[in-house]
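Anyone opening a protein record will find just a pair of labelled lines. A complete record is shown below as an example:
=====
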Amino acid sequence: MLNPHIFRAYDVRGLVGPDISPAAFEQVGRAYATLIRRRGGRRVAIGQDNRTSSRDLKAAFVAGTRAAGIDVVDIGIVTTPMLYFATAHWKLDGGANITGSHNPVEYNGVKMVHPGAAPLTEEEIQGLRAAIGRGDYESGHGAIETRSPREDYVATVTTLVRLERPLKVVVDAGNGVAALYAPELLRRIGCEVVELFCDSDGSFPNHLPDPEDPANVVDLQREVVATGADLGVAYDGDADRVGVVDERGRRHEADLILALLARDLLSRHPGAKIVFDVKSSQLLVEDIRRHGGVPVMWKTGHSHLKRKMREDGILLGGEVSGHMFFAEHYYGVDDGLLASCKIIDIVARHRGPASALFDSLPHMHATPELKAMCPDADKFRVVDELVHELKQRYDTIDIDGARVLFPNGGWGLVRASNTNPYLTLRFEARSEAEIEAMKREIYGALSRFPSVTLPD
């Protein structure tokens, strides 16, 4: 029996050893291939990140896929966006990347897609679990071939981004899989690249590749200032997320990065919709409107936003975690490398420093993403009860947890993480004092749940 909690809202993920093993991934691969085959598919791409556990997990997943009669294109060690690209660009019937993403080294998982790199639904992922429990598999002898998407991917991105002037950019790959691709790609679009932790090492000896955590970009901030660079960019472990540091060494939250991307898109597509997750700043909402766009707030999670983009014909999206989604002349997927290229292009066209672009955005006081530990078995129940309680006292947006709108114009968010055993909290207001007052209210409501450990 597999741990049911590894089957999450939009991927399969857990601790290597207790939950994630080659034996488990052979079953997951066969169940996924069965799903693809029963939808008429015959051929999928399979890749992996550079974690030390990924090779054996991929071999097992490939074996399970072939045992269900599906042919495999082994694309090697790639970013997750390159897996999406290969699936869509080569018109395959699906794709899977073995990756632990931004999680600590002891984790691993797999992200799976349909044709066109369309994400699996939560129901389909739970369906894999059910199929494994029943032993309900197709059988066959799928073929295997090896093919790299590198050149096709680089050729495509370099047609989308061409710099008006060269910029000096520090690239912090965090020793993740971006180390194999980002420096070359940025040089191809015209950057002078300073490499930081760009040796591929899946044990992540310097810092965890997760630019959402400010502690993980301290080295990048220092290097940007020390080298006089125009910009610094950082990626998570599988490079589907990006972080940005300006020439003054300031880190900027991803929802403000999305605001700059939205301004750029709206200059070409007036009145376009921009989708973003429920954790995003109210400043983003207002800036999209101010530049003639239509803001669309939606559920957090890369698969949720990608589906919304496909359903509503949206060209651009993003979330606070650093996922940026592109459907203008692209495949409607999140891609940290492409996002960094587009931000660099915006700065190059601006002529002034990157800091001036970010300073053109109004700023409010906001917390980073805060984490209140809560077991997987309890977290959704806790949030459901909290939503019911808070809606009695405040205007509350409940599309994904509770985004509580306070009378002072600020807001506080509590939602269950789809990937880890904690609740996500975020607060934004005009002053730190207002944030502290909102925290006291939300923390007080959470304190009655014994399974919740509040942040310090």
User: Anything to note?
Assistant: Residues 280 and 332 are 20 Å apart (CA to CA). The chain has four domains: 4-150, 168-247, 254-359, 365-446. The longest strand covers residues 422-429.
